[in-house]
Design brief:
It is an enzyme of class 3 (hydrolase). This protein is of the alpha+beta class. The chain has a domain of 281 residues: Deoxyribonuclease I, Chain A, CATH 3.60.10.10. The protein has twelve helices and 15 strands. The strands form three sheets. A seven-stranded mixed β-sheet has the order 1-14-15-2-3-5-4. Bound molecules: NADPH dihydro-nicotinamide-adenine-dinucleotide phosphate and magnesium ion.
Length: 408
């Protein structure tokens, strides 16, 4: 990680790559980047000079001098909007030496149910914290070059831009303030970040701050009604895991719903702990949705197979939830065979851990993005030069059922 911004300055960017520079470069700057470097690199036209003012303001602010970079959020008013197509092209330029993206298709699930409003596209993704990927995860078949942040961040952005979700639920985010918040806000998203209280990223040398959950929604589609950052408890004890729950109102339909993101405790031996965290989250969501009066979508890396207790709590909750990716199976009852697939020193780890739960009486899943095949994932599994995380993204299109007063 270090000072990735300096790599861009030193990489001999040509004027034709100035767009790339505008969108991607300033957001990777390290607080110790010399001012002279910033000025030299930023004197490339009006757009960049405006960026320079924002950047200079951020770096010179008293907040910046007192707090590490990851706690400093650039003022969104000073950031120019970006055209998603342009950013996608910029990412592709950075990734030109890498193999092409895998093709994934949306599967139509409810073509028979008409909807007057555009669907709500939700993406769930554990993007793999940079510090954990480089320092803790031990992905023994993944070359270190495949994990280089300057390229891996472009693969992550490419995935987001390819599907353009209305709502984005992320786990293991350790580049919120320097990358995702500024870039996604320029794409029209409003973001919220809740770091883990004792993120394992902080144990890694040259880390970029704690990892946590992040929730983004498109401001032109939704109005924020209510937001809660939740530190999960297990049997009344505070834990290291978190969730964000927000009530949003659709600007087109006026209908409200609650969206939540979480990342439960990892590892075997912690099943009862995860179960308790799940119960706490369900209790919080009961309160927020006023006993299931408001439709709910819960995205998460639950770190639990469908056989675990926490999964069963969600499946049988009085919130009337169903897991969207079951609908991809022939009988509509089976989860996919994997949502994460990696090789550690301990061997191959193929598991279904990631879910998108939704209020089954209030929402329809219109389509879901198919998973990567074993052949696409390849023998070295994930992450790889083609795919930036050990977890696959899950993407669903939802619409409200037509009866607003129907049972939730
Ligand atoms: N500084 C301090 O005083 C304290 C520090 N800590 C730190 O926090 C850590 C525990 O945090 P906690 O939130 O409970 O972490 P978790 O056990 O939930 O795991 C943290 C991350 O490790 C990944 N992971 C899962 N399995 C493995 C594996 N076999 N090898 C490597 N990584 C794996 C998980 O990814 P995924 O979800 O993708 O599987 C997850 O993102 C401690 O190890 C310590 O580093 C904790 C308390 C105090
Ligand atoms: Mg992980």
């Amino acid at each position: 990680m270090g000072s990735p911004g300096l790599q861009f300055v030193g990489s001999g960017l040509k004027p034709s790559r100035s767009n790339l520079f505008c969108s991607l470069f300033p957001l990777s700057l390290s607080p110790d980047l010399p001012g002279a470097c910033i000025k030299a690199a930023c004197s490339m036209g009006t757009g960049t000079s405006r960026l320079y003012s924002a950047l200079a303001k951020t770096l010179n602010s008293s907040a910046a001098s007192q707090h590490p970079e990851y706690l400093v959020s650039p003022d969104p008013e000073h950031l120019e909007p970006i055209d998603p197509k342009e950013l996608l092209e910029e990412c592709r330029a950075v990734l030109h030496t890498r193999p092409p993206r895998f093709q994934r298709d949306f599967v139509d699930l409810r073509t028979d149910c008409p909807s007057t409003h555009p669907p709500i596209r939700v993406m769930q993704w554990n993007i793999l914290a940079q510090a954990l990927g480089e320092g803790k995860d031990n992905f023994v078949q993944c070359p270190v070059e495949a994990l280089k942040w300057e390229e891996r961040k472009c693969l992550i952005l490419e995935e987001i831009l390819a599907y353009q979700p209305d709502i984005l639920c992320l786990q293991e985010v350790d580049h919120y303030f320097d990358t995702f918040q500024p870039l996604l806000s320029r794409l029209g998203y409003q973001g919220t970040f809740f770091p883990k209280p004792w993120s394992p990223c902080l144990d890694v040398e040259h880390n970029n701050g704690p990892d946590g959950c992040a929730l983004f929604f498109l401001q032109n589609r939704f109005k924020l009604v209510n937001s809660a950052n939740i530190r999960l408890t297990a049997m009344t004890l505070k834990t290291n895991q978190v969730a964000i729950a927000q009530t949003l109102e659709c600007k087109e339909s006026g209908r409200q719903f609650c969206i939540a993101v979480t990342h439960l405790k990892a590892r075997t031996g912690w099943e009862r702990f995860r179960s308790a965290q799940g119960c706490d989250l369900l209790q919080n969501l009961q309160n927020i949705t006023q006993g299931a009066k408001i439709p709910l979508i819960v995205c998460g890396d639950f770190n639990a197979e469908p056989t675990e207790e926490v999964y069963k709590h969600f499946a049988s909750s009085s919130l009337n939830l169903n897991s969207a990716y079951k609908l991809l199976s022939a009988d509509g009852q089976s989860e996919p065979p994997y949502t994460t697939w990696k090789i550690r020193t301990s061997g191959e780890c193929r598991h279904t851990l990631d879910y998108i739960w939704y209020s089954k009486h209030a929402l329809n899943v219109r389509s879901a993005l198919d998973l990567l095949t074993e052949e696409q994932i390849g023998p070295n599994r994930l992450p790889s030069f083609n795919y930036p995380s050990d977890h696959l993204s899950l993407v669903c299109d939802f619409s409200f059922t037509e009866e607003p007063d129907g049972l939730l």
